[in-house]
Design brief:
Layout (H helix, E strand, L loop, with lengths): L1 H19 L13 H7 L5 H11 L14 H4 L2 H10 L5 H7 L1 H11 L9 H15 L1 H4 L13 H15 L3 H35 L4
Helix pairs in contact: 2-10, 3-10, 8-10
The structure holds heme C.
Heme C binds next to helix 8.
Length: 209
């Protein structure tokens, strides 16, 4: 009985940590005005944000998950041929080997290849992305990323909303995953109870109970 209570408590704590209070999730220390944070996390700005990305960021950054490649690659007729073969999202090794010279060109200019931003939202979170994009030098002193969005917080927030829309699964997908998680847990609980009852019966039949 004590063991059952203990195990249940352990399970409750486990799921609490995973779902409610997750200490492994990125904690932010960047002060972002509420109005911009709201925009940066609102994917209804994603479409506008994508256009702003194309105008301000695509010279250096790709978003492979959305089939968006750096400008010089996007202008290369080879891209279309490759996309016909592999689909909109090229495998990373194909992209990096075929367009190596484009990426090396950027590396020569900026000291490193500007990273692909497909999953940056999941890694860094909205506050960091907003603060860094608006004022790169302030957040990462010495960085070679130019302050292309200086003085344009609203447009910066929209770009972050676009990055969110690319990185996160769609709401339907999220619902599906939640349902799946809940079903698995419900299944385990029901099976656990049935096994417990069955164990009791077996023990009784053996005369041990
Ligand atoms: C002229 C090239 C250039 C443009 C344009 C540019 N970036 Fe960058 N970006 C870089 C480089 C180079 C780095 C790597 C910087 C470093 O690690 O010091 C970088 C890094 C980043 C990072 C990663 C920061 C980190 O903590 O590692 C993010 C996020 C980013 N850029 C977002 C953007 C966004 C959003 C835009 C458009 C508004 C943009 N960049 C436009 C060159 C560029």
């Amino acid at each position: 009985m004590i063991r059952a209570v203990f195990l249940t408590a352990l399970a409750v704590v486990f799921f609490f940590v995973i779902w409610v209070y997750n200490p492994f999730v990125h904690k932010e220390k960047y002060e972002v005005p509420q109005q911009y944070l709201k925009m940066a996390t609102d994917v209804s700005y994603a479409k506008e944000g994508k256009q702003l990305f194309e105008q301000n960021c695509q010279a250096c950054h790709s978003i492979r998950y959305d089939g968006v490649y750096i400008a010089s690659v996007q202008a290369n007729p080879n891209l279309k041929t490759l996309q016909e073969k592999y689909g909109k999202v090229l495998p990373r090794n194909v992209y990096e080997s075929v367009f190596q010279s484009d990426l090396i060109g950027l590396k020569e200019s900026f000291g490193k290849v500007p990273p692909d931003l497909s999953t940056m939202y999941l890694v860094k979170g909205p506050e960091y992305l907003f603060a860094f994009t608006l004022e790169p030098q302030k957040v990462l002193p010495g960085t070679s990323m130019p302050a292309v969005m200086a003085g344009r917080p609203e447009e910066t927030a929209k770009i972050v909303a676009y990055l969110k829309s690319v990185a996160e699964p769609s709401p339907e997908e999220k619902n599906k995953r939640t349902l799946m998680g809940v079903s698995v847990i419900a299944y385990l609980v029901v099976m656990g109870i049935l096994l417990w009852l069955w164990r009791g019966r077996v023990l009784k039949r053996m005369g041990l109970h």
